[in-house]
Amino acid sequence: MGRGKIEMKRIEDATRRQVTFSKRRAGFLKKAHELAVLCDAQQMVMEITRLRKEIDQLEAGLRRQTGEDLSSVATVDELSQLQLQLESSLSKVHARKDELMSQQLEDMRRMVHYSLIVVAVVVFADEW
Question: Cα angle vertex 66, ends 61, 70, to 5°?
Answer without folding.
Answer: 70
